[in-house]
Amino acid sequence: MKHQGITEESQTIAALYALGALSQHEAQSFENHLREGCAPCQDELNEFELVAGTIGLGSAEATPPAYIRDILKSRIEKEPQTSPALVRFPEQVKPISEQPAQPRLTFAQSFIPWAVAATVALLAIVSFLAWQDERQRAMSARQQLAALQSESAELRTQADRQAVKAQEIEQINAVLTAGNAEVIPLKVDPAYSAKIYWDREKNRWLVAVDLPKPPEGKGYQLWFVTPEAKISAGMIKTDETGHGFNIVTIPPAIGPVAFAAITIEPEAGSEQPTSPIYAIGKVG
């Protein structure tokens, strides 16, 4: 705490400090007080330092009593040893000066680091946006490529189906133009169709159907229906659209066939129909 004026206590402390008679702790405390800027104590100390500097010049040398050494030794032993700071001699004490103020940064010194950081951040943002745009372009290109590949595959599938149907139509026309053929329509839902082209010359059936896709694990089975029995004519292979085309040879030993029928059976086929007739047509 700064003093407004000199007091008896501060005068005593300044005198003892000038003589080097304060303890280490007391001297450090007084120095801290001077650093706080107490002008009265600093002035008092300056006067005592001048006096202390001339005291030794005005008296003869004398040997100190032996007990003084004992007192000094005892005092040193009682001093705390927590700090290795040295006790200043009076002539070494200098006025406490304030620390120089830190120089203020110029506009350029403060602006340039900010500008560099802002530029780096801007470049990072621009790079990220460019990368994101490129990524979206790449994704769009991949999606377009995938769409084109899917469309191309669908076109190839349709082309293959058309080629197969063209072959089927060619075979059917060959049977019909031979002059010894019969068309056997089978009764089915009007949305679908099932026909048999009977090639009497070769005793075979050309079976053409467009039916619903059968349930999973099931298929369409064709039957020769005679007055005595129902004889399997095999499974009708259909594609994903339900279209199928089979050529079936009629066994001569089964006798006259009265009807052609279709049922839905397991994919491996059945020895006898296990479900109601799905489509049927009269033969002859």
Brief account:
44% of the residues lie in helices and 19% in strands.
Itemize the secondary structure elements and their pairings.
Blueprint: H1 8-19, H2 24-35, H3 39-55, H4 66-78, H5 107-177, E1 181-185, E2 193-199, E3 204-210, E4 218-225, E5 230-236, E6 243-249, E7 259-266, E8 277-282
Antiparallel strand pairs: 1-2, 2-3, 3-6, 4-5, 4-7, 7-8
List keywords for this structure.
284 residues; alpha+beta; Arc Repressor Mutant, subunit A; Immunoglobulin-like; 3 domains; 4-stranded antiparallel sheet; 8 strands; 44% helix; rod-shaped
Describe what this molecule looks like in 3D.
The chain is built from 5 helices and 8 strands. With about 280 residues, it is an alpha+beta fold. It folds into 3 domains: about 10-55 and about 65-80 and about 85-90, Arc Repressor Mutant, subunit A (Orthogonal Bundle); about 110-175; about 180-280, Sandwich (Immunoglobulin-like). The strands form 2 sheets. It has a 4-stranded antiparallel beta sheet, with helices on one face. Strands 5-4-7-8 form a 4-stranded antiparallel beta sheet, with no helix packed on it. Helix 1 packs across helix 3 (about 40-55). It starts with 7 loop residues before the first helix and ends with a strand.
